[in-house]
Amino acid sequence: MEEFNTTVRISGFVLSSLMFHHLNNDADVEGLILGESVGEENCRITDSQIDHIQFEHTINIQKHIPCISYILKHLFIFYQNVICIAKLCYSYSTFTCVKENVIGWYRQRRNTRQQMTFMEQVVHQNMRKILSDHELVFMLLTPSQATASGSTHRLEFSAFIWHSSQYINIPIFVSNLGNLEQQDYWRVSGTCPSLGQSEAVNQHRTKFFCSGDDLKEVRNISSMNDGLLGEMQKVCKEVERSERAVEKLQEEIKQLKEQKKHSEEKETQTHASRDGLKENVLLCSALRKLFPDAPSLRTQTLTVQGLPVLELCCNTDHNIDIPAKLPLILENQHTRKEDTAPRLRKKSLVAGYPQRLKRKRKTKDTSESASDSGSDTEIEMNGQNRSISPTF
Length: 392
Description:
About 50% of the residues lie in helices and about 20% in strands. By secondary structure, the protein is of the alpha/beta class. The chain has three domains: about 1-180 and about 185-195, Cytidine Deaminase, domain 2, CATH 3.40.140.10; about 205-280; about 340-390, no CATH class. It has an eight-stranded mixed β-sheet, covered by helices on one side. Helix 3 (about 80-95) crosses helix 4 and helix 11 (about 340-365) packs antiparallel against helix 12 (about 365-390).
């Protein structure tokens, strides 16, 4: 991300000189502005942005040259042929002010608005054509009376530059007046250098300066800072890549936790359904004791046809104390053992009854024998009915 800021700085002495020169003239005053233009590039690294580049362009106004005294006889030319007057002003400044740079021009007019007129825009465009290697600034000063008696005057000043096919207003800071802005420090451009100072600096420039008017140590430090910035950007990219990997791992861990939670819930539901079908241990032990040879009675699973599944019968010995918990089962077993012999005898009598009946029919006995056999039959039938009835 890049930001571009342009400001104009002027000392209080130069501003007061402009005001004094204007108040001592009855007409409007035009002239050239001399000074220097400084550009700085600041790169900041924040938590949200890796490279935040900010360009600070500062235009320092150091001196002004009024053109009224020199071109008073060419006043008509100034309004008719602005290219010629700009050439005259530029030639005058180059011959009289050695090693000084023309960074723009100014205009002072009374009781008007802080807005460039069409003529001023044309003059500025023609000066940009002549001084193509300079970024020119136009400074407009508009004094006016603050009171009706004229005891108090007011001076408004502003600067304009050509940017993106239009004129934009840029702020002006007076260096030796109190500024309300909070900043650690700011540099103020020095006065215009003299010819002797320029010769002395040019003589020893090669020892301290590089080709671009930069100190050698500053260039070395700048290259070191660029290297550190490159390494820091690499580290930031690695950190960002690792953070993305950590986020991906955390997402996978979260998904695994959710899967594990679902599986545990499913297992809990399965165990709950299994625990719901509890086995009757006492019934199973009783059936095992009463019917040891009938495992189909100890199963809880049936087929579609309603038949017991022998593979799923209970074959576990539950270690139930039968005499203590189920005493009636032992009594039932003793009763069944006692009833076993009479039942066998009665069954044999019933089984032998048809043979004796046939034998009597073959011999064709008398009615007495038939009645006797009938009484015997009734006795035997009664005995048979008694043997079939259940015993508890």
